[in-house]
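Predict the assembly for these two chains.
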Amino acid sequence: MRLTSYTDYALRTLIYLGTHRDRLVTIQDIADLHAISKNHLMKVVHQLGVSGMVDTVRGRNGGLRLKREPADINIGAVVRNTETDFYMAECFDPANQGCAYSASCTLKGVLGAATAAYLKVLDGVTLADMLAGAPQADAFSPVRIYPRAALPG
Amino acid sequence: MRLTSYTDYALRTLIYLGTHRDRLVTIQDIADLHAISKNHLMKVVHQLGVSGMVDTVRGRNGGLRLKREPADINIGAVVRNTETDFYMAECFDPANQGCAYSASCTLKGVLGAATAAYLKVLDGVTLADMLAGAPQADAFSPVRIYPRAALPG
């Protein structure tokens, strides 16, 4: 059972923004820190913008910042928003009505209850709760850029 | 967030065996019913055998049957056994120690608590509970085989 990497990066982006509220953050900062694709991260950031969690400032000195207070960013809401689906079995797919058990099977109910319990835990957590245990500000710095003189060759 | 199709088929196999305790069931019966690959199902059944949940009788009239009473087959144990992992984010992968947040990040704890809540629901359910709501015996029949005369052409 996995969350998508999309959700993983959305959560890490929010954590980064929450620990760098003193400045605008660039997508490059976060991509460098996690050594992930900037293109992939741009899609994540775009959706966080559409859902009103992240604000984008354009221009040469532009960047990203949280649009809401961390206490107002619910982790359950983020995960519901970034996961494409919670299809625990074929019967969760609305396009698939083919399961021979579907008429009276209890599988969907059992797996649905487990998924609800999963999301209920996340619904009880805000970004502020998560930041409370995280180091503040520059503890999460982008990867160190070595001065040219220090590079081999 | 998804379970693997492997887990989905393992659960459906157990439900089928639990509702057909009057006879040996073949892999073909289950593959036909769900229109799924017999090869894929063979791997699922093999693992259910290794974990002591399903018994295989060899030979011309052989087939499968439950090795334990449905009340002794815990759904949480089945899912833990069939899912390859519960990696909710990169930090859940023991091979990946690269996350820049790992030292003090709360993400793993939060997602781990949610996963534990998910499994706790399943730990409270047995196959017998699931069968209690399911139709018995031949209600889950393999796909109907039309007599040759009824086929077009």
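The first strand of chain B starts at residue 54 and ends at 57. The domain at 5-139 of chain B is CATH 1.10.10.10 (Arc Repressor Mutant, subunit A).
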